[in-house]
Amino acid sequence: PVIPRPCTFPMKLWLLVNSPCVHSVRWDARGEGLFIDQGLFEQELLGVGLSAAGEEELFKTKNFGSIVRQLNLYGFHKLTVSPASSTVGSRPRPATGGDTSYADGPLHHFWNPHFRYGRPDLLVKIKRLTKANKEKLDAGLEVTSRLPDDLQY
C-alpha cells in the first residue's frame, strides 16, 4: 500500500512528534510545544553520519539550521529550555540501549499557538510566512490553507 506523504512542514512535524518510532521530537509536558534534540534529530531524521541506502528522505536537507528556518517561517517561536522543563515529556523515553538522557546535542523548545497535542484540526491555521501571506495578514485579510484529505473533519 502507498502511504500518502505529508504535504506541509507542519503536517510532517505533527506526524513526527506523535510517532512512537521517533525519539528526537517530543511534546512538552503541557502538550503546547515541542522539544527537538538536535543531535538525535540530525541522526534520526536528517541522516547525518548515516548512509541512508534506499530510504526516502523526509526533509530535503541535512542541515538542522534549515529545519529551524522552516519552523520560523511557519510561525514557531523558540523558547528557553529550563532544566526542569526538558526532563518532562509526554512520551516515555526508551529504556534500552544505554544512555537515554537526550544528551546527543542541544535541546530546542518550540511553540506555536496552533500546534497542540490532540488537535490536528488546528494545523490548518499554521501558515507559511511568505511575502504574499505577510501582506495579506498586514492588511487584516485571512490566509487560508487546508488539511490533507485524510484529516478533513
TrEMBL record:
The entry's keywords: DNA-binding, Nucleus
InterPro entries: HSF_DNA-bd, WH-like_DNA-bd_sf, WH_DNA-bd_sf
Annotated SMART domains: HSF
Cellular component terms (Gene Ontology): nucleus
Origin superkingdom: Eukaryota
Alphabetized Pfam families for the sequence: HSF_DNA-bind
HSF-type DNA-binding domain residues: 5-129
Stored SUPFAM superfamilies: Winged helix' DNA-binding domain
Molecular-function annotations in GO: DNA-binding transcription factor activity; sequence-specific DNA binding
Oxidoreductase in keyword set: no
DNA-binding as UniProt keyword: yes
Official protein name in the record: HSF5 protein
Provenance organism: Spizella passerina (Chipping sparrow)
